[in-house]
Amino acid sequence: MTDKTTNGLEEALTRQLRTTRERLGAMLGRQGEALSPWVLRRTLRELQNVADPAVSDVEGGRRAAGVAGWYAQATPEQRRDCWLLMSEQFPPDPSAIQAAHDAYDAARGTDEEARAEVRLRKAFASPRTRLLQRFAAFPEGVRFLVDLRAELLPHLRHEKRLLALDAELEDLFSSWFDVGFLELQRISWHSPASLVEKLIKYEAVHDIRSWADAKNRLDEDRRCYGFFHPRLPGEPLIFVEVALLKDMAGSITPLLDEEAAAADLDKATAAIFYSISNTQTGLRGVSFGDSLIKRVVETLRAEFPQLKVFATLSPIPGLRGWLGKHADDLLQAMPARARQALARELQQTELKAADITAALEKAAELGEKSALRRWLLAAAARYLGSELTPDGRPLDAVARFHLGNGARVERLNWLADPSAKGLKQSYGLMVNYLYDLKRLDRHRVQLAQGQIPVSSAVQSLQD
What residues are annotated to the active site? Predict the structure, then answer.
């Protein structure tokens, strides 16, 4: 690359990094940016008119609808400029924060402390909050903001100036989508076709291949429930699919078999949660999955009092990647006799991690007495039962969700998902997380102390 080319790239990068404040003060053209200074100033005025505290929320919502209409026709680059204006031009007043903070410090321990705290809280409220609330005031406004954040999220890694806007949206959504405002609804084969279509679209764990597949999952021996919000009618925010069975499920194959006979509900004693899917990318960080499971358990117990077991049949999405990084360490930690047995099975005199990972590509062919099969199960038990992130949470994302809700790692299931996706994620292994309703709080405390709750069967695999 020539010096001239390098300088050109640096100039382009410099232009892209100009703040909106610098661009608003410029007199010349856009210099490679989406909106010229003149159009940027006009857009800012329209956003300021939306947030104007002198107008009513109804009028502010009407103005916000006009901006949303422009936004719908804008290019991705123009939308990015709009985000930057929202993020950079509507911050809280730092002088007001400082004054309120000083007043609070002075009032601590006096009768004025509570009043000073109220003023401090108000000082931290930014005009950006009012701006976004005005967008939520028109009928499609909440949908607009959720979609806006979904589009914004991929840009956060490279555009830190958008972090304030993202944090404000997440904070507002956490209030607006509190579980107290959500309605639990059953989704069945008799639900509107548009809702079943969304189920097919949003299913994130086991793809729904056809309408016949969808019908199987919504049949009379199944249950599917979703959380709905009144401002997003007909749009599930999250949904869970449940199979009602005699025993804890050890394989996903019969649950997805469209030709399988329906289970006898009178004999069902186990409710198996085999798929949980969030549907709205823009609501990332807003947690309602744990509440969904609790509400579904209550609903199922009311309908089927004989149910005794509430468990999942879950994928282990991070297992293969973790094994790829730690296979050598796991190999070195093996007892000598077990390592020799594994070497004999793989016909290797000097066993290496690469030999193990290569042989695991044929995990589906391993017999019950295979040393490699035992090694993989032990590795999976360690991954789920011992491995934590630096901040003390379970390493696997699905485990993090269920264990955070108070479940425990109950059972590993060999070749439970023989699909291409299952083999790619975890060599076909799946796991049951058990929701023992009497021990949920105990398990949460245990996890908070850095110890993952596991059954004796899973613990024995690690020993």
Answer: 314, 402
